[in-house]
Design goal:
Layout lengths: L2 E4 L6 E4 L3 E7 L2 H7 L3 E7 L3 E4 L3 E4 L5 E4 L6 E5 L4 E5 L11 E5 L22 H4 L2
Parallel strand pairs: 3-10
Antiparallel strand pairs: 1-2, 2-5, 3-4, 4-9, 6-7, 7-8, 8-9
The structure holds zinc ion (ZN) (2 copies).
One zinc ion (ZN) binds next to helix 1.
């Protein structure tokens, strides 16, 4: 699968040349605070992601940093420094072939969010949902 995406202003673009994991919704506090709601993220092998432009990286926890556009503020990447990097699915240029596969950190979700789908849910992180 080959995919491209960008932030709103186009200063940051990316291309993914390898396989992708389908979309996971994350309701954790950090995702809420950085996106304004929950996020929808795909995941790709780090080695298959080519980033153009200079994202600003914010170290959001001991384990991870988040990449956003310093011009338009677009929320693009979650990088846990492992083999994979998460990409906010809404920044993809096309996503018609992707599916949502589950919800994680539901314990942190905003009070107004009603999950109305049949997808699996986990209170915290859940490798059964986030695995490839
Ligand atoms: Zn931008
Ligand atoms: Zn999260």
């Amino acid at each position: 699968m080959s995919k491209t995406g960008s932030c709103l202003c186009g200063a940051i673009t990316y291309a993914v040349s390898g396989p992708l994991r389908h979309v996971v919704y994350c309701h954790c506090e950090q995702c809420r605070k950085t996106s304004g709601n929950f996020v929808a993220a795909i995941s790709a092998r780090r080695t298959s992601v080519q980033i153009s432009g200079k994202p600003q990286w914010y170290k959001s926890s001991k384990a991870a940093r988040r990449g956003f556009c310093p011009t338009c503020g677009g929320n693009l990447f979650w990088d846990g420094q492992g083999e994979n990097i998460s990409i906010m699915a809404g920044t993809l240029n096309s996503s018609a072939d992707l599916l949502a596969i589950g919800h994680i950190f539901v314990a942190d979700k905003a009070g107004y969010v009603q999950i109305c789908d049949e997808l699996p849910q986990a209170e915290q992180n859940e490798p059964m949902i986030t695995k490839w």
